[in-house]
Amino acid sequence: MNTFVAAERALRSAAPHRLVDAVREVLCSDYAAKAVDLFMADYGLTVLRCVCSPPDRPESLPVHGSPAGRAFGAQEPFTELGGDGGVRVHLPVTVRGDRLGVLTVTMPSAEQAEEYLAELAEVAQVLAHEIVVAERDTDLYLQARREDRLTLAAEMQWQLLPGRSSARAEYALGAQLEPAYAIFGDNYDWCATADRLMLYVTNGMGEGVEAALLTSLGINALRNARRAGISIADQACLADQAIHAHYRGRAHLSVLLLDLDLVTGRLRVVDAGSPRMLRLRGRTVTRVDLEAQLPLGMFEETDYIAQEVRVEPGDRMVFVSDGVYGVAGPGGERYGDRALARAITSTSLLPAAEVPGAVLRELSGHRGSPVPDDDALVVCLDWFGRPRPD
Q1: Which residues form the PPM-type phosphatase domain (predicted)?
Q2: pTM for this structure?
């Protein structure tokens, strides 16, 4: 039987908590690997944490400045020589653009590493798919992502998210929240079909668990309306009614709703609150002026209207919460005044998945403190356009 087929079968038949053991056994027996380790990216995207770390292996590796981190950032296999004469191959563990971590395989020689590199990369992709499925039945991989303890509000928020990145031929998405281990109100959601991409960027009022509960109600109300097949304007109306029915106007949810037609590139937007949209076209960053409408839940029945925004292939759209653009530096200048545009321009060569983290690092420098006073959310959407059929 083909060695790759054997590896795929071993992963698909393994118990959810034994995926690392299964991939290690098959790679050592069929590919002559000397060691196999899985590292998961933590919630803050600062370290790669080892799953079931053996005693002779590090528990975590930095995302920036390590060979494994280089493979994670570039999304390409990276090979390094080991001190014992072996070769370590670091392989991205990614599913449909969502970067989960890195599979590190130690091979006896550079020749064997090169011979099996393509198949090892495919095994890492299969592993990524199996991890996503396995997380329904085990906490092992979620626990491995934790460099610190999550607050209860953060636990609730991370469980709402669809992922931190996604990619297709037409677009690429990336998102990140700060502080990763103590978020409470900001959130995002996306959903794609054959011809449409819908994206929500939310900023819930309040703090702690109360803010997380409000956002959870809002996101699930929007999902319920979206799955009924109605427009984003009507989705906003129904979610507005659901939030008002529960809170009676005492709490509201700011949200930016977007509906991108993947065939034509037509973008429809409902601006119901504080999240902002900026567009990078060429080397020019502009804030997209939208018709401001009421946040969800303020009044019993609010009508919402979608407006069209012109986008072109090659455009990068960046969405930020008020915890990003409203942050003041030591001198009093808000990040959204000029520094945000500079950060977006300086990250123009990065893939969409890396832009949010880079912008948030720039925000930390602008703030002058590593600890934020409010949630900060950055979402990046690159629009490539639909490829023409050959």
Answers
A1: 166-383
A2: 0.94
